[in-house]
């Protein structure tokens, strides 16, 4: 993009922001929380699924004022585009699959056209337009944000406290031995690379173990365009190894600082410091399946992440110069993995899980709502007869066997269970493959219309 195009693009955005015609929506969630599925569904609902039957609680659609959404024609050429059509094609194929896990950042801009329902615009203009920007990125990168608050020594201490926990200790033992045997005076390329390879292997083992969320630095797992960059030679030494200033400690400290300054800070500035609205997706059910330590680590990860955002009411000046998130939707994702009467408990569980994390943030300055939703419902609710009693159940395609199953997945606890409950009860909520869709069908969802109403309803009045 030439500097002139860029300038025009920026000034158009500024004009729209001044007129309150521009919203930047942040979809936040750890890896696997459901960000890509959420964005794909949201874009589909806004561009192709905008009927009152499909979105009954989305006011602008319900009132017949929504004229349609389209993907913006003039997205800046330098910004990777969210692969909406590609993701959709996975869901629409004969044997539908989930879109793949995300490996880089991308953005999509939508133009939402509607008839203003009130004010001068409703009389003067035949239609109004709201520009919506949504960004997607690998969940692993989100976990780098807390590094902005830590120096290298603090990060090493944090990491080794984490690796001492029961669900991580055994896996971390081999890497710990490697560090103990490491010559700290040797900061050669080959030593750094050998340590990095070993740490990367450990992170990969962690990340394929259900219920380990805090795997840092995220770029070691998903390097994106930084693959091979020297600052990715980064491992947490044992805290006691930092007592002395050595060649290796100073090299790693400098790589850590570069990583924070040249990777994490720009990523935060570009994608997160400008948000107006935020969805925080949390996969509570997978954490319950993985047990007590996993659920605790999920809460810890959310706490660290939530501290990185600015919350507060939006005003004209703030919108222009220091945007703050004025509305946050906390959503328990994949609600189609439980029967509908469990949704309320799932919402309460999410609120309970977030209570501690949110204590230390300024999020109270924003409007918030919590709900259980499914961006893409992959199950159907039915009933089975059991001992003469009607019992609610779900049916769907089991993601492991590929077979159709019907089951009652179990009750969702309305609070984070304590260790004794985890010790005596194994949660095993299912996971489903997407259901086949008829040609041109809407994407089935649970409460995406409520989510849209909360996030965008006031901007489409
Ligand atoms: N049943 C059901 N499963 C879902 C839903 N959303 C996501 N999933 C499941 O969760 C997995 C991860 O979803 P993604 O949207 O890729 O998660 P993500 O947050 O983008 O993950 P990263 O790209 O790795 O950061 C999917 O492959 C599905 O198995 C949903 O609404 N319903
Ligand atoms: Mg993704």
- The CATH homology group name of the largest domain: P-loop containing nucleotide triphosphate hydrolases
Named once each, the bound ligands are:
guanosine-5'-triphosphate, magnesium ion
Shape: globular
List the quaternary state of the chains. single chain
Strand neighbour order, sheet with most strands: 2-3-4-1-5-6-7
Structural class designation: alpha/beta
Any idea of the CATH topology of the largest domain?
Rossmann fold
Just give the CATH class of the largest domain.
Answer: Alpha Beta
- Low-pLDDT sequence parts: none
- What string, H for helix and E for strand, traces the elements in order? HEHHEHEHEHHHHHHEHHHEHEEEEHEH
The overall strand count is 11
Q: How does the major sheet shape up?
A: 7 strands, mixed
- What percent of residues are in strands? 15-25%
Number of domains: 3
State the end-to-end CA separation.
34 Å
Q: Please compute the radius of gyration using only Cα atoms.
A: 23 Å
Put the structure in a nutshell.
This is ATPase. This protein is of the alpha/beta class and 461 residues long.
Describe this structure in words.
It comes from Arsukibacterium tuosuense. InterPro entries: YcjX-like. The protein is an alpha/beta fold and about 450 residues long. The longest helix has 25 residues, at about 245-270. The chain is globular, with a radius of gyration of 23 Å. A 7-stranded mixed sheet has the order 2-3-4-1-5-6-7, with helices on both faces. Strands 8, 9, 10 and 11 form a 4-stranded antiparallel sheet that branches. It is about 40% helix and about 15% strand. Helix 8 (about 165-180) runs antiparallel to helix 9 (about 190-205), helix 12 packs antiparallel against helix 13 (about 290-305) and helix 13 crosses helix 15 (about 345-360). It has 17 helices and 11 strands. A hairpin with a 5-residue loop joins strand 9 and strand 10 (about 405). It has 3 domains: about 5-140 and about 275-375 and about 440-460, 3-Layer(aba) Sandwich (Rossmann fold), CATH 3.40.50; about 145-265, no CATH class; about 380-410 and about 425-435, no CATH class. It has helices spanning about 5-20, 35-45, 60, 85-90, 120-125, 140, 150-165, 165-180, 190-205, 220, 245-270, 285-290, 290-305, 315-320, 345-360, 420-425, 450-455, and strands at about 20-30, 65-70, 105-115, 130-135, 275-280, 325-330, 365-370, 380-385, 390-400, 405, 430-435.
């Amino acid at each position: 993009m030439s500097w002139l195009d860029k300038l025009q693009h920026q000034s158009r955005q500024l004009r729209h922001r001044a007129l309150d015609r521009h919203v930047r929506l942040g979809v936040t969630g750890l890896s696997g929380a459901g960000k890509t599925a959420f964005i794909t569904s949201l874009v589909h609902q806004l561009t192709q699924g905008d009927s009152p039957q499909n979105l009954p609680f989305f006011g602008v659609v319900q009132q017949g004022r929504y004229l349609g959404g389209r993907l913006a024609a003039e997205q800046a050429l330098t910004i990777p585009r969210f692969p909406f059509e590609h993701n959709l094609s996975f869901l629409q194929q004969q044997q539908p699959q989930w879109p793949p896990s995300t490996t880089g950042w991308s953005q999509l801009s939508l133009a939402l056209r509607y008839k203003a329902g009130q004010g001068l615009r409703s009389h003067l203009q035949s239609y109004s337009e709201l520009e919506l920007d949504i960004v997607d990125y690998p969940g692993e990168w989100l976990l780098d944000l807390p590094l902005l608050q830590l120096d290298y020594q603090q990060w090493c201490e944090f990491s080794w406290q984490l690796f001492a926990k029961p669900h991580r200790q055994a896996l971390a033992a081999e890497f710990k031995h490697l560090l103990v045997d490491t010559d700290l005076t040797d900061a050669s390329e080959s030593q750094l690379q050998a340590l990095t390879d070993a740490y990367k292997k450990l992170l990969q083992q962690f990340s394929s173990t259900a219920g380990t969320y805090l795997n840092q630095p995220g770029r070691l797992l998903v390097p994106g365009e930084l693959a091979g960059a020297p600052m990715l030679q980064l491992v947490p030494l044992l805290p006691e190894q930092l007592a002395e200033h050595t060649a290796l400690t100073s090299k790693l400290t400098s790589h850590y600082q570069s990583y924070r300054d040249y990777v994490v800070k720009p990523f935060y500035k570009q994608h997160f410091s400008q948000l107006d609205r935020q969805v925080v997706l949390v996969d509570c059910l997978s954490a319950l399946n993985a047990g007590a330590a996993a659920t605790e680590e999920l809460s810890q990860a959310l706490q660290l992440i939530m501290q990185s955002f600015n919350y507060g009411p939006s005003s004209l000046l703030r919108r222009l110069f220091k945007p703050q998130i004025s509305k946050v939707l906390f959503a328990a994702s994949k609600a189609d993995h439980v029967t509908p009467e469990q949704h309320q408990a799932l919402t309460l569980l999410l609120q309970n899980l977030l209570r501690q994390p949110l204590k230390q943030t300024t999020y109270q300055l924003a409007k918030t709502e919590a709900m259980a939703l499914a961006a893409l419902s992959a199950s159907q609710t039915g009933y089975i007869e059991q001992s003469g009693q009607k019992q609610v159940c779900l049916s769907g395609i089991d993601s492991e066997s590929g077979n159709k199953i019907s089951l009652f997945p179990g009750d969702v606890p309305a609070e984070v269970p304590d260790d004794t409950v985890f010790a005596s009860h194994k949660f095993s909520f299912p996971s489903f493959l997407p259901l086949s869709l008829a040609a041109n069908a809407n994407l089935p969802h649970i409460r995406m219309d409520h989510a849209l109403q909360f996030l965008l309803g006031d901007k489409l009045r």
